[in-house]
Design brief:
Blueprint: H1 9-12, H2 24-38, H3 53-77, H4 90-104, H5 112-136, H6 142-171, H7 189-209, H8 212-231, H9 235-254, H10 256-259, H11 263-290, H12 294-300, H13 310-327, H14 338-341, H15 356-363, H16 375-408, H17 412-434, H18 441-461, H19 471-509, H20 513-523, H21 537-547, H22 551-564, H23 569-581, H24 585-598, H25 603-615, H26 619-626, H27 638-656, H28 660-670, H29 673-686, H30 690-705, H31 711-720
Helix pairs in contact: 2-3, 3-5, 3-19, 4-5, 4-16, 5-18, 5-19, 6-7, 6-8, 7-8, 7-9, 7-17, 7-18, 8-11, 9-17, 13-16, 16-17, 16-18, 17-18, 19-20, 20-21, 21-22, 22-23, 23-24, 23-25, 24-25, 25-26, 25-27, 26-27, 27-28, 27-29, 28-30, 29-30, 30-31
Length: 729
């Protein structure tokens, strides 16, 4: 029988004595678990549309199916229930309760397909946590094996990052924006930095524990990580490093007598600290010689001013998220539905003071937020207060186990390991407060590894004495298989969506509208109806039908898109346009208004609504709608719509005035597009209505430019049209 653990012999050859079983099924399960760490993050490093979210989810689900199958087979031949006693720990109850709350949130979701997918992700993480604990509990010191595995993984990942960084540096000027190109295999430089940080507790523990070759490997992996984190300018990872180190040092100081600090340990800590400082300073030195510290100053500016760059943007998102929670406190808006509900709370005031272009992209629907950049708020808004409390309780129990272990245990080596785990989970929470590690498979895998190690190490030192009911192992294994199966099916559906959606995008660029429709229909399902920007798939096929002149079919697809995401401003705009072309003016007006309520400066809807008002002879309303668009807009229909409305306003003004000289002046303005647009801009600047600004312009033209009227007559006209009061006269 092939033994999968032999694949990992390079890492664990000296630790094989620590196995408590020679059972081949167990070794095979351990091998699959190690492959999860070593291989999973490199599955499809860059997927079709997303950094391999669903391919990796599929990979994790399949690994879990195989692993659970092996554990079931082993349990069938060796039905020892005692190993399941660890599952009586309270942290498992809280994790299961959080999973149940996530499931209950489906009833509150607008898009149940997205909610179910997110529920399955939560379920897979729960199953992974349970399976990992059951495997680790049978090894005396599992941290030795996984510290080696993670050290090697870290070196491979970091080297890939350095290669990308060097290529970018050689191509031109190194800058903050350029670092975003360092993304393989994690899709984004911040996510890259965060996963490197989550590996640090294991590589740093290797520095404390290993000797000779593995000590050098651990040091090398740690220094590579710290250096790359510094170079990638990830504020969340920086904060995680600083705060986790402070917490670890304060804890070490508080439990000083419990750790039995020896000279060799102090020497290693000093070596680790000295090398870390040297690596970080080297990274800063690189930027000092390539960027004059401008980038570093910009990245550290958020410490003294939250109204800076993305920091203000996050605060705005958190504020709106709390409004969302207050509207749905019990069950939230549904798992995976935060991104759908956010626009309902307005896009106009989500902005950063130093990012005008980005702010404009937000209000025009070019940037669509997928998460609030805060996992705690994310959980609170999507699962409600009960789900949030159970989620927070998972972390609370982890800290409780760590500090209780420090207080009671006599195992100095394990205390140091728990100290590193404390730093890891503290850093994860710091990252989770300003980023979205919950979304990413590899981040969640690392978190659950840390949680599993904490529970296992604590459990060994604080054994439970109670009977394990025979139905518990069977129930958990069956549930694990069902969840893994459902997750595999959903992941397959989402991978299929990504494949066909990528093809649809390619055909869209080539203007092959029939092929776009065909690919979207192949991609679409109840579990796959949004792309990775939360844009409904049927919006793409509806747009294709519209471009082919098939308005009726476009209308049907836009209706489906609306049901999948009712607050997507482009969906609202296009659905309204189809209703308008079908002659349903009230429904079109309602949807245009809804889009403009979400984003008052949204050009597409403002212009389309203005055109609709113009053709239904509601010129004043058409004017108010076109006013929403920023003057100088480059929208393809802006000037055509603006000119039509302004000309109508000028003609209406001509019927209002009685003086022939005023009518002639208005004629002159009417025949010069640049002139009446200039008057329009001046009216907005002076906060006047357009008619008043026209009269001001006419009187100025006659009195000052042409000198065709006397100052006295000019005053009479100003008095007549309310430009000055009787007292002024």
């Amino acid at each position: 029988m092939f033994d999968c653990s032999y694949v990992c012999r390079f890492f664990i050859i000296k630790d094989m004595k620590n196995y408590t079983t020679d059972n081949w099924q167990y070794r095979l399960a351990l091998g699959f678990m190690i492959l999860t760490v070593a291989v999973l993050p490199f599955i499809f490093p860059m997927s079709t549309l997303d950094p391999a979210l669903y391919p990796r989810m599929l990979g994790l689900s399949l690994i879990l199916l195989l692993t659970i199958g092996i554990l079931v087979f082993r349990h069938f031949f060796s039905p020892d229930h005692s190993r399941f006693i660890i599952l009586y720990r309270l942290i498992f109850i809280f994790y299961i309760a959080y999973f149940i709350c996530t499931g209950l949130s489906l009833f509150a979701a607008v898009n149940t397909g997205e909610a179910f997918t997110e529920w399955m992700k939560t379920g897979v993480y729960l199953v992974f946590f349970l399976v990992t604990v059951l495997i680790l509990i049978e090894i005396e010191e599992p941290q030795l094996i996984f510290s080696k595995i993670i050290s090697v993984f870290t070196i491979f990942a970091a080297v890939a990052g350095y290669i990308q960084f060097i290529i970018i540096a050689m191509q031109g000027h190194l800058s903050h924006e350029a670092t975003y190109l360092v993304r393989i295999p994690f899709g984004h430089r911040n996510l890259f930095s965060e996963i490197l940080f989550l590996c640090l507790p294991f590589t740093a523990y290797g520095i404390y524990r290993f000797r000779k070759t593995w000590l050098i490997i651990s040091i090398f992996a740690t220094m590579l990580s710290l250096g790359l984190i510094t170079l990638l300018l990830s504020k969340s990872a920086w904060a995680a490093i600083v705060i986790s180190m402070v917490v670890a040092l304060l804890t070490l100081g508080n439990y000083y007598n419990k750790f039995s600090l020896q000279k060799k340990n102090l020497t290693r800590f000093a070596l680790y600290f000295g090398l870390s400082v040297a690596v970080i300073i080297s990274g800063m030195f690189i930027y000092g010689h390539t960027d004059s510290f401008v980038t570093l100053k910009k990245q550290t500016g958020w410490l003294t001013n939250y109204k800076f760059g993305s920091s203000l943007e996050r605060v705005d998102l958190w504020t709106k998220s709390m409004d969302m929670y207050r509207d749905h406190p019990a069950f939230g808006v549904g798992a995976g539905n935060w991104k759908i509900n956010l626009p309902k709370y307005g896009l106009e005031d989500i902005a950063a003071e130093d990012s005008t272009n980005r702010s404009e992209d937000i209000v025009q629907g070019k940037i669509i937020f997928q998460q609030p950049h805060n996992d705690m708020i994310w959980v609170l808004t999507e699962t409600g207060l009960p789900g949030f409390l159970f989620y927070a309780a998972i972390f609370f129990m982890a800290f409780y186990y760590i500090f209780l272990f420090f207080k009671r245990s006599q195992k100095t080596g394990d205390k140091y390991f728990m100290l590193f785990m404390l730093a890891g989970i503290t850093g994860y929470l710091v990252i989770a407060l300003v980023s979205f590690p919950k979304e990413r498979i590899e981040h969640s895998v690392m978190l659950n590894f840390i949680l599993a190690f904490i529970v296992v190490v604590y459990h060994r030192d604080n054994t439970l004495t109670r009977k394990v009911h025979s139905f518990i192992p069977l129930t958990l294994m069956v549930a694990g298989i069902l969840i893994s199966l459902m997750s595999s099916l959903v992941s397959l559906i989402r991978v299929n969506e990504e494949i066909h959606l990528k093809r649809a995008f390619r055909y869209r660029e080539l203007n092959k509208q029939e092929m776009v429709v065909d690919e979207i229909n192949k991609a679409y399902s109840v579990f796959a109806n949004l792309d990775n920007t939360s844009t409904p798939l049927k919006w793409y096929s509806g747009s294709a039908y519209f471009n082919m002149g098939l308005t009726a079919k476009a209308l049907e697809d836009f209706k489906t898109a609306y049901s999948d995401n009712p607050w997507h401003i482009h969906v609202l705009n296009n659905l309204a346009t189809c209703y308008e072309l079908e002659g349903n003016h009230p429904e079109a007006e309602k949807l245009y208004a809804q889009a403009l309520k979400i984003s008052p400066s949204f050009e597409d809807s403002a212009i389309n609504l203005s055109i609709m008002y113009y053709y239904t002879h509601r010129i004043d309303q058409a004017y108010e709608s076109i006013k929403r668009v920023k003057t100088g807009s480059r929208h393809e229909n802006y000037h055509q719509a603006l000119d039509a409305v302004l000309m109508a306003k000028i003609k209406a003004c001509q019927t209002m005035v009685s003086e022939e000289c005023m009518k002639k002046s208005l004629d002159r303005i009417l025949n010069a597009a640049e002139w009446y647009e200039k008057v329009f801009r001046q009216a907005i600047n002076d906060k006047n209505n357009y008619e008043k600004q026209l009269i001001i312009e006419c009187i100025y033209l006659m009195e000052i430019v042409d000198k065709s009227i006397t100052p006295e007559y000019a005053k009479e006209l100003k008095l007549k049209y309310g430009l000055i009061s009787q007292e002024v006269k």
